[in-house]
């Protein structure tokens, strides 16, 4: 096999684990009650395994992400607290969801991103109950609970045809579209931060992941240089 975009990437990630300042990288180690990725990557999958997973869920994975699974790893070290891992268990092939809410049964459905998604999100946000509109707190709580339930139901629709990739902290998650016209695009669910479920522009999996590798390498190198500079100034 000739050189590919993923050539040497696994080795670069593993090298980061040995850097002096690796523990300072966000999401790398266990903090705030969340288990970090420790710069560990799961073993790569075989062609037969990826094909079996695709057949189980009725999808054709984006080419670059598929190549990542084959050449780099089935998940692990990556942006935020790391990539979800695709592995086979009693229920067949599943992505280890960190809480984002991947609905495997809906992966084959076209992702409904775009103007319709934005319109529905805005319409739902406009219906959020306001406590001052209710006679008592109990009535408000009932209405708010119903609104949240509808929010979750709508999100199952918003995220059809997408896999939750990583937990970015504070309940925000990155997703990868695997079905429909926007296949291969990365989206961010930052609703917990008063945002929306939105695309990261034209960003695909390759740019998203390699940007993390490059920025992490730069940050670790910079921290190491600052440490050396500080030690020199004391001599």
Q: Could you characterize what this model shows?
A:
By secondary structure, the chain is an alpha+beta fold. It is globular and about 65 Å long. Strand 5 and strand 6 form a beta hairpin. 28% of the residues are buried. The strands form 2 sheets. Strands 3-4-5-6 form a 4-stranded antiparallel beta sheet. A two-stranded antiparallel sheet has the order 1-2. The C terminus is likely disordered. It folds into 2 domains: 166 residues, SMI1/KNR4-like, CATH 3.40.1580; 42 residues.
Which structural traits does this protein have?
SMI1/KNR4-like; 39% helix; alpha+beta; two-stranded antiparallel ribbon; 235 residues; 4-stranded antiparallel sheet; 2 domains; 6 helices
Short account of what is shown:
This protein has 235 residues and is α+β, with helices and mostly antiparallel strands. It has helices spanning 9-16, 47-57, 63-71, 115-126, 137-158, 205-234, and strands spanning 86-89, 92-95, 162-169, 172-177, 185-189, 197-204.
